Amino acid sequence: MRPFNSLAGRARCAALTALLLPAAHAADGAPTGGAPVPLTAAATGTFGRTAHALLTDRTTALVEGAPSGRAALTASPGVRLTAAAARTEARTLTSLHATRSRLATLGEAYTDSDTEVTVDSVRLQGRTATVQVTENTTLTYAKIRGDEPDTTAFVAHHELTFAARPDGTWQLTGEHLTDKGPRPVNAPLPVGMGATARPDDVIDAPRSLLTYPAPAKAKNLGSGAKYTYAAMAAYAEKYWKNYNTAYRHYEADGGDCTNFLSQSLNAGGWKQVTNSARDYGTWYHTTSADSYTWIGVNEWSWFTQTTKRTTALRYAYQMAVGDVLQIDFDKDGSKDHSMLTTYRSASGVPYLTYHSYDSYRRSLTSVIAAYPNAAFYAYRS
């Protein structure tokens, strides 16, 4: 893949490893705080690298056999997104994974991609930068029918916004296409179409009711249980705040909740799956990659429901230790957050432990109270 071109001579960068560079400094080298910041060549370079990483990850999500998601963003340690922008990008990649599956159903796939980004203009207002970029992307067709052309290509124009942080670095706050007409193939589905952004051959979990108290639903927690649920809870409660350094984490890249959930389930006996003919049929962590189903909220649900690793619970208050809760905050059909039950009170209230606003034994009751308009999905593991 080729990197971005900057305004300064359209020079090509050799790798996506540069740290975010200072937005502005006073004479003594300290950040200028809330003061307006000047536009520098270093800042323009940062904007280009961030745009390139973002758009490269989107295109890579369409390539058959592509490495696990967000590779370019996570390979660039200085590239930062606001929490809202990271959530949006996580949903974007989920949408693109579904696009890839729909394409495969229709007999089309890609084997390689190449993305270039040119920074066209930068407008600075106070501590906010609005950046116009041009994307040139080429995708290589897989020879499924045998008569496909070698490649397809497109040019797209994007507007990105960045905010200067108090420490002198820049943070991406948003991105959108500025072109009119049909969306390019690496663009996500529009807002409101999230419910259809999934492969046709996966099982979607039904929503759970929030009735309390819930009808009893016994779960085997003893020595004869299929998994060691106490070990799942012990792992989560050990690492809820002090992360296990044996794993990568995704706090700055859409959230770490499902990655942490997968670690906990693995600690309790869930076996990893590295090969499958089915979309979202794998679930694994390696030193070089994590499967989409290991780290993605919707992908985890599709994997566990379709492979029968989990069964849907009709009532959320039926959850016991080792069971899972997911939330769709805005009821758009795309789940946003994953949590593990690590304690259940004698009165029948599950307590949840999770990453991304790291929390220990938060009651299901308080979660429901905080998100009265959300959709909830409970799973027996």
Task: Output the keywords.
381 residues; 22% strand; 4-stranded antiparallel sheet; 10 strands; 24% helix; disordered N terminus; 6-stranded antiparallel sheet; alpha+beta
Ordered list of secondary-structure elements with their pairings:
Layout: H1 41-60, H2 71-74, H3 83-105, E1 110-125, E2 128-141, E3 151-164, E4 170-177, H4 229-239, H5 257-267, H6 292-295, H7 297-306, E5 311-313, E6 324-328, E7 337-344, E8 350-354, E9 359-363, H8 364-370, E10 375-380
Antiparallel strand pairs: 1-2, 2-3, 3-4, 5-10, 6-7, 6-10, 7-8, 8-9
Describe this structure in words.
The protein has 8 helices and 10 strands. The chain has 381 residues and is an alpha+beta fold. A hairpin with a 2-residue loop joins strand 1 and strand 2 (128-141). Helix 1 runs parallel beside helix 3 (83-105) and helix 4 crosses helix 5. The longest helix is centred in the first third of the chain and has 23 residues, at 83-105. The radius of gyration is 22 Å and the shape is globular. Residues 1-33 and 192-197 have low confidence and may be disordered.
